[in-house]
Amino acid sequence: MNIKILYNSYKGNTEFIAKCIGNKLGIAPSNISLKDIIPVKEFVSLINENSLEKRKERLILNNELQIENDTEMLFIGTPVWAHVPSPEVQGLLLNYLPNNVPIAVFYCHGGKPEGIIEEIEKMAPDNPIISSCDFRSPLMYYKNDSAKRAEKWAEETISLL
């Protein structure tokens, strides 16, 4: 199977979950980053303008990211920033996804992740979300339980293909 794990992490939580999934499936996860650092104030302005076109223009990834057309599924991991994915994951969703590749979303947060899936659906309307899993600060709370849950979720998710 041609499956990729792409993620962005700030405090290590999303990276931890990506590595748990990768270890279980035998896939090396890839951390994505932006070509240019975007100040928080500018990012908030991009979100408040609610213009996906402006975000698409500004959120260009640093990585030479290639997602082949024969990719069967993508696991995409993001920290939650005020109910939206990180700028890096927004750049991925807006600029780099081939159409019709199913995605499985995992996200880490400190409290209120409401709206994250809806935001991802807006940014990747041609990519069905086949599964999602949320993790509340996995490095701070229930690290072992979070690892087991991530592994189980990954197995269940690939069985959907």
From TrEMBL:
Transmembrane segments: none annotated. GO terms for molecular function: electron transfer activity; FMN binding. Coiled coil: none annotated. This is Flavodoxin-like domain-containing protein. It comes from Methanolacinia petrolearia (strain DSM 11571 / OCM 486 / SEBR 4847) (Methanoplanus petrolearius).
